[in-house]
Amino acid sequence: MIRKSALYTPRILEHPGLIAVHSVGIYYVCYAKQKDYLEIVTFMGNDFINTVPTVMGLLDRESLESSGIIQVQQQPYLNLNGANVLIGFVDTGIDYTLDVFRNEDGTSKIKFIYDQSIPGTPPADFPLGTEYTNEQINSALASDTPYEIVPHIDVDGHGTFLASIAAGRPVDNFIGAAPDSEIIMVKLKKTYPFYLDRFCVPVEQENAFSATSVMLGVQYILQKAEELNRPVVICVGLGSNYDSHDGYGIFSEYLYNISNNPGVCLCVAVGNETQARHHYFQQFSLAGTPETIDIMVGDNAGDIFVLVANTISDRISVSVRSPTGELVSRVTPRSGFTFSSQLVLERSQITVTYYYPLEGSGDQITIVRILDATPGIWTITAYGDIVVDGTINAWLPLTGFVSPTVEFLSSTPYNTITSPGNAPGGVHCGAYNSIRNSLYPNSSWGSTRLPLDLPDLVAPGYQVGGYYPSGYGTMDGTSVATAITSGACALMLQWGIVEGNDLGFSTPLIRAYLIRGCSRTDVMQYPNPQWGFGTLNLLQTFFYMREL
């Protein structure tokens, strides 16, 4: 991913090894073979780290009534069910054969499926994948062999589930938050082996997606919404720990820009990382005494990716000690240079890479990769070469992207919101247990490295009912809470855009109304890092809106 305005952009576009280029707003998504890519990135200098797409994973862990959504659906003077509003998903796909995605006449409520994983006929001007239209989906549903016509399958079921609770039609005793809304589903393709290796993603992790694929998916949803002249909610139930959590970068910047468009509402999950012990925080003393970051590693943990971040005013360097005491001495900071060392008495290999100053924040990140990690306690020692602010943050990858036997010995649940949920733009959704009115234990906590009060709110995210390809079931997590919130936002877009009450409705306005309408208790102060501004209450949101 590169900005069109970057000085090195013409050199990249003229490189003979470039396979394809796709325009996404003020950015280009470029494709090249690995050997050419490694040459092209030398044109960017230190800005290289800002252009590398992170790898993202799924955030999966009576709900609608608790959120005030059923009451809004049944309110006779509102009568909102999401009619003429689109809800777009960038996820694992959708089981289009389920009754929950069919209208009363048996036709599909899915307007488009863009499957990036199937080579074929991509959407116009898009570089990959296959597009399936509502007409093709209806033809498949009328056939005895639907998958011969539309061979799209949601193997994981995550996308199907989120779509059902956000936009599912009434089936038995089930109903989605915005049952009359229509769906655009983008099935993301698994990221390339080069990035899987770079970020030490376990081989068994199938749901690893590149941020560039998500950008293409979001652009597709926006393009289709514009063609249909419909307002759209975009549900992002994905997250990543592979960045500095500073809220900057091309991907976060892109989502922020599109979230301000009238008729668009972006909903983003904040992650399920509070209990994972994947975040470390410490402050250098005034004397600048080195700080140790201890990591417990179990048997057969494989490769480990650790990201250490410090602020713009500071510079740090690191050393690494193995469980047997073998030391990789303090590595001198050189931005963009990777130091590599094969241990003598152990099979493990260590790489250390520094990047500074980062675009946007000006901060420094240090990436330590422990390949084929020996079990025991590994120690990264951070030295303060320049100490003014003195704060150090470190993150291990998202749950599922590192062995469950790997964790920081000294961890904190704060600042565990995943990217892009830690950046401006969007409605940032945490999760709570609506049965017991308690916080969902894994829902990520704020604050963030930017001075943002996050999450914005919490929505039901525990034992929420919905549909998998295999049938009815339940799911936990902030992605579920985000899907419920997306359905609520679809009802607001119907009221504002479709019914003409406020044609300027966009993410910032909807976010403000939702925050004001949240349910709160007298026993805690708001906003707070766990509950944000309170629990989603759509009916109360409309009560406050009528006072304007």
UniProtKB/TrEMBL annotation:
Residue intervals of the Peptidase S8/S53 domain: 82-279, 415-494
Active-site positions on this chain: 91 (charge relay system), 158 (charge relay system), 479 (charge relay system)
Assigned GO CC terms: extracellular space
GO biological process: proteolysis
Keywords attached to this entry: Hydrolase, Protease, Serine protease
A UniProt-annotated Pfam family: Peptidase_S8
Organism name: Aminipila terrae
Similarity field: Belongs to the peptidase S8 family.
Domain of life of the organism encoding this protein: Bacteria
GO molecular function, one term: serine-type endopeptidase activity
PANTHER family: CEREVISIN-RELATED, PEPTIDASE S8
Name the UniProt record assigns to this protein: S8 family serine peptidase
Gene3D superfamilies according to UniProt: 2.60.120.1290, Peptidase S8/S53 domain (3.40.50.200)
